[in-house]
């Protein structure tokens, strides 16, 4: 079977890493990179570290307003799909690359498979929520990472082609943690002691593009007597500069460049707690049993909140400070994201298609 897989961002590269290799054992896979994330630390390094096959097509779309970016992707992806004529188009996650790939395929009457289907934050102001809802409703196959995701789809009337498979990010984490332990020296190089520091990541427009929210988060960090490691997403760096907030970064906060996957695993694994607005990092924190403080008002990963390993604080300075000092669970009751074999289940289901 000929499969076109569409990726465009750092999390999607992680998700496709093992599944791409699995699919290529039995199928012809064409990998398309939209270029939604494009600099070395957000894209190229993941191909190198995770041994992802090189893209057959690099569209080099870059960043821009949502409508423009999605439209450019839609036009270029349509051309690729018309040329390749695949039997299945595989999309990942909830980005503009996901939506553009699904729409381009559906309009050409090609089957769409969605990896990480069924997630819902129930916040339609988030572009990611719109992307994932539309993609699910035009997909022939919905590969769900959790039982909750299956239930979400059922409530929307999507019951055909729905499969609970677990989370491919858990597959990748399990496969690469030992490699990370052996290869990464990031904590030693930075002189970090285990469980003696915090990690924070911010990248969502709801935080980066809002002065009050971004300033509140930064001010909260200044009230904490802990070392905070802050890998700076390019978007966050831009708005810290635009808003003049770089001068308000407290001394206990160490700004660093974005890290590759192996170094980021070690940095997160050794942290006392993680603060983030990233969906992927919320999951990875849970997978590594590191408490997570989510800088959002809602989350699609509700299970991690229900189990007590994740807490939603938005950009409320007092709540952030409170939760940094609050106790979290020390043991997990189970694993929410499957058994680390999601890629095998997905490949098996695809292999059984007529």
Feature tags:
354 residues; alpha/beta; Rossmann fold; 7-stranded parallel β-sheet; 6-stranded parallel β-sheet; globular
Describe this protein's structure.
- The structure is a single chain.
- By secondary structure, this protein is of the alpha/beta class.
- It has two domains: 2-167 and 338-351, Glycogen Phosphorylase B (Rossmann fold, 3-Layer(aba) Sandwich); 177-325, Rossmann fold, CATH 3.40.50.2000.
- The protein is 46% helix and 15% strand.
- The chain contains 16 helices and 13 strands.
- β9, α11 (234-242) and β10 (253-256) form a beta-alpha-beta unit.
- α1 (10-23) crosses α7 and α7 (168-183) packs across α12.
- It is globular, with a radius of gyration of 20 Å.
